[in-house]
Design a protein that fits this description.
With about 210 residues, chain A is an all-alpha fold. Helix content of chain A is about 70%, strand content about 0%. Chain A has nine helices and two strands. A two-stranded antiparallel ribbon of chain A has the order 1-2. Chain B has about 290 residues and is of the alpha+beta class. Chain B is built from nine helices and eleven strands. A four-stranded mixed sheet of chain B has the order 9-2-11-10. A three-stranded antiparallel sheet of chain B has the order 1-5-6, with no helix packed on it. In chain B, strands 3-4 form a two-stranded antiparallel ribbon. Chain B starts with 7 loop residues before the first strand and ends in a 7-residue tail after the last helix. Classes of the chains: A mainly alpha (about 210), B alpha+beta (about 290). The interface between A and B is large, with 51 and 47 residues. The complex binds protoporphyrin IX containing FE and iron/sulfur cluster (SF4) (2 copies). The site of one iron/sulfur cluster has 17 residues of chain B, from helix 3.
């Protein structure tokens, strides 16, 4: 337990539920997709009731993920514009990795890494949706010429790779930065947490509160 | 288990060798278009042997029926009215799987053992293992596989692998009244085709030739074409090969991507071990309970 009271609301209940719907549908989509990505992962089809069920379910979980992400992106969008501090933050990436947070320019509600992750998710999900529809043989694929279907398959696999890499970084960061998972589960953080990891955001909310 | 296949040359989505100690002779079906009269006996024989009854189609102004290959029509006589040398020619091509030596369908298929290639060259779909994703259609340079709306499985010509396995010729071969269809070892078929090409050239078809495209490593269904310089006349691709995009999608990029994913997780773990968790530092100072003193 922290010595300071958790007094700052970082995510309200609807935001937290929204986030976890995205997270769950991400796992369903990525595990079912990766099952078809490489033979060594085909065993993952067992999680979904076999190969045909994996093939059937995957596009639907993908669509639910995209819809939930769009809702989430709507309230996060403006917080993820990059500014000058963020550019300096990125140029000092060795301090980020070396855990010397005190040398870094102050982050806002999200730091530059989180912001970039956000835009990577926006781009990869847009590509996954478009290419996924083209690959969907049950309903759409045969409306497209062969070369479009072939390109869509390559783009879908690439975008999925980028998305999964991005989420690996995201999950690692949330494990590394103590208190982050708690913020997305209970919704609240301590002032000290906010001051250390997101000083600009802390300043804004404390001024707003005052 | 003497009845199992011990002559599997390649198997979809499989990274280790398949049972393959038995070697069989490479076979081929030769389709001599110059001899075909378009009677469709082969189409009927295919239906009969494979016990398939396609839906009754409609007449779209050609003898071609059905209009396209379907999950229940694995071979189809295609009729073309063309004028390559200033006068009308009626070209009739028996369409169906080419049984490529380097099959794009097999390359693309994500389901282990849904597509196999035997050492005799036959490429067979094993519907039991098929998940209905359609990747085989994306991978095939000849637009052959079709997915059934009834069971979401992919189907195509088997080259009568069941008959060939017991020493019979494919059903279509047996039915052909003009010997436009011949079956035998790939070598013998190439020799036979070369003889036919020489005859045709003597008769004035200067550009007669064999269609056994090298881009897919050769095929186990080969054609004798009157106009081998213009395979487009028969709606055949001029230089078929597995598309570079499919190679990119299915090639070395996949294992590299797998390696990168695994490496990222490992790097994350090592980073954690290296720098330790990123905890709230002021909080630590303020907290007396966690200090050892
Ligand atoms: C946005 C909606 C999405 C749609 C419509 C969609 C559609 C598809 C389709 C149709 C396939 C072919 C297999 C099948 O028929 O099930 C596929 C494969 C795949 N999908 Fe998605 N998908 C979507 C989102 C995602 C997401 C969020 C991921 C997460 C990583 C993902 C990862 C993959 C992967 C890795 C494959 C296998 C690619 C390969 O074989 O190389 N997809 N997708
Ligand atoms: S013609 Fe198409 S379906 Fe037949 S073996 Fe070649 S790639 Fe596969
Ligand atoms: S539809 Fe069936 S045969 Fe075709 S690629 Fe998918 S699993 Fe393989």
């Amino acid at each position: 337990m922290s010595s300071e009271e958790e007094t700052i609301v970082r995510y309200d209940a609807s935001e937290r539920i929204n986030h976890w719907i995205v997270a769950i549908t991400f796992f369903l989509s990525s595990l079912s997709g990766l099952a078809l990505f490489h033979p060594s992962l085909f065993f993952l089809t067992n999680l979904f009731g076999g190969g045909p069920w994996t093939r059937i379910l995957h596009p639907w979980t993908g669509i639910v993920m995209v819809v939930a992400f769009v809702l989430m992106a709507k309230w996060m969008w403006r917080d993820n514009y990059l500014n000058d501090n963020d550019r300096r933050w990125l140029s000092q990436i060795s301090d980020v990795i070396g855990n010397r947070e005190e040398h870094l320019p102050p982050a806002g509600r999200y730091n530059a890494g989180q912001k970039i992750l956000f835009w990577v998710l926006v781009a990869s999900l847009a590509l996954l949706l478009l290419s996924g529809i083209v690959m969907w043989y049950a309903y759409f694929a045969l409306y497209f010429p062969l070369w479009v279907r072939q390109s869509a398959a390559a783009i879908h696999a690439l975008a999925a790779f980028v998305l999964v890499e991005g989420i690996i970084v995201h999950i690692y960061a949330s494990i590394w930065v103590k208190g982050s998972i708690h913020a997305m589960v209970g919704g609240k953080v301590t002032p000290a947490w906010a001051r250390q990891h997101h000083p600009e955001w802390y300043r804004e909310i404390s001024e707003g509160k005052a | 288990m003497p009845l199992q296949s011990l002559d599997i040359a390649a198997r979809s989505a499989t990274t280790l060798p398949s049972p393959g100690i038995r070697r069989t002779e490479e076979v081929a079906k030769l389709i001599d278009i110059s001899k075909c009269i378009g009677c469709k006996a082969c189409q009927a024989a295919c239906m009969e042997w494979n016990d398939l009854r396609d839906e009754v189609g409609f007449n779209f102004g050609s003898y071609q029926n059905p209009a396209d290959l379907t999950p229940a029509s694995w071979t189809l006589m295609r009729f073309y009215e063309v004028e390559p040398a200033g006068h009308l020619e009626w070209l009739i091509r028996k369409d169906g799987c080419m049984h490529c030596a380097e099959p794009g369908c097999l390359e693309a298929c994500p389901s282990p053992g849904a597509i196999v290639k035997y050492s005799n060259g036959i490429v067979d779909f094993v519907e039991e293992n098929c998940i209905g994703c359609g990747y085989c259609i994306t991978g095939c340079p000849f637009n052959i596989p079709r997915i059934s709306k009834q069971d979401d499985k992919a189907y195509k010509c088997t080259l009568c692998s069941d008959r060939v396995a017991v020493g019979l010729e494919p059903a279509c071969i047996k039915a052909c009244p003009t010997q436009a269809l011949v079956f035998g070892s790939k070598e013998a078929m190439r020799e036979h085709a070369a003889d036919r090409v020489a005859e045709l050239q003597e008769r004035g078809f200067k550009n007669a030739g064999i269609y056994d495209p090298a881009g897919v490593g050769g095929t186990h269904v080969i054609y004798v074409l009157q106009h081998a310089d213009q395979p487009e006349l028969y709606e055949l691709p001029k230089d078929p090969k597995i598309s570079p995009v499919v190679k990119l999608w299915k090639g070395i990029t996949k294992p590299l991507a797998m390696l990168a994913l695994g490496a990222s997780v490992l790097v994350g773990f090592l980073h954690y071990v290296d720098v330790g968790p990123n905890e709230v530092k002021h909080e630590k100072k303020a907290s007396d309970r966690r200090d050892r003193t």
